[in-house]
């Protein structure tokens, strides 16, 4: 950032973060690569699937050795859950494993082929989790009305998909994302569908408060290098949004005005 402007931190459920890039831990070849990619991303919030991650409840490699809670904000998620009941149970398991941890990422999926959110079950799970004291960041469709209802229930961040999970198709409906942002009073983060750095920059230029990704980094040919690229893209997109882009014009507008020019 320039000396004359200092951005505000990203605030979620009482936590303040300098980085607006949130990353996942799945799909890497091993924990060493996971650790290197997270470090290159500059992320402070790291999400993981509770059902698929060893946090010490089993023998073998432990994610907490790579992502120590004293250094990162852990964001357990309910990936793989297809009902509100399963999602709520999974969040309670995470709270037990992490000594009362309250911040969770809720996702309730509709089917295996699209991994599209089941909005009905998501709303049901969000209401129960919030009533039970959880701080809920919620993965949802890009429907602005659903986003408003999730905020009304008390979700601390709304996370609409850009496109299908793991598809890498980028933001397919920027107009809906912008509508969600315009009506939200909590942070809005694009979650799912990011494929490359330009997608992340676009999300931030739309006015998103942050971006969460996993596959775009983990499935890159060089994940650590892509993590670094994503860090820069999120920062650049944020600065571009704050700076305010020039208006689009139908005709040319010369960079050097004719008025006052010296005639030869």
Automatic annotation (TrEMBL):
Belongs to the ThiG family. It comes from Billgrantia aerodenitrificans. 1-deoxy-D-xylulose 5-phosphate binds at residues 166, 192-193, 214-215. This is Thiazole synthase. The keyword Membrane does not apply. Homotetramer. Forms heterodimers with either ThiH or ThiS. The gene is thiG. It is found in: Cytoplasm. PANTHER family: THIAZOLE SYNTHASE (PTHR34266).
């Amino acid at each position: 950032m320039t000396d004359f402007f200092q951005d505000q931190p990203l605030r979620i459920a009482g936590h303040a973060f300098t980085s607006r890039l949130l990353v996942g831990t799945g799909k890497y070849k091993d924990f060493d690569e996971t650790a290197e990619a997270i470090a290159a991303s500059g992320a402070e919030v790291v999400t993981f699937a509770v059902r698929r991650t060893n946090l010490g409840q089993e023998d073998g490699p432990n994610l907490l050795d790579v992502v120590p809670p004293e250094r990162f904000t852990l964001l357990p998620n309910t990936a793989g859950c297809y009902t509100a009941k399963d999602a709520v149970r999974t969040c309670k398991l995470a709270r037990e494993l992490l000594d009362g941890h309250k911040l969770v990422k809720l996702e309730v999926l509709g089917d295996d082929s699209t991994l599209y959110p089941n909005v009905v079950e998501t709303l049901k799970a969000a209401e129960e989790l919030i009533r039970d004291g959880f701080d809920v960041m919620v993965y949802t469709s890009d429907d602005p009305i659903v986003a408003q209802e999730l905020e009304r229930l008390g979700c601390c961040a709304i996370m609409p998909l850009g496109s299908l999970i793991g598809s890498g198709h980028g933001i397919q409906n920027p107009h809906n994302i912008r509508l969600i942002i315009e009506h939200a009073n909590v942070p809005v983060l694009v979650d799912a569908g990011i494929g490359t750095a330009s997608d992340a920059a676009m999300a931030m230029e739309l006015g998103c408060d942050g971006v969460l990704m996993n596959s775009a980094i983990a499935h890159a040919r060089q994940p650590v290098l892509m993590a670094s690229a994503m860090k820069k893209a999120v920062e650049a997109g944020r600065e571009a949004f704050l700076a305010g882009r020039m208006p689009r014009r139908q005709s040319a507008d010369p960079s050097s005005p004719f008025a006052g020019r010296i005639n030869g």
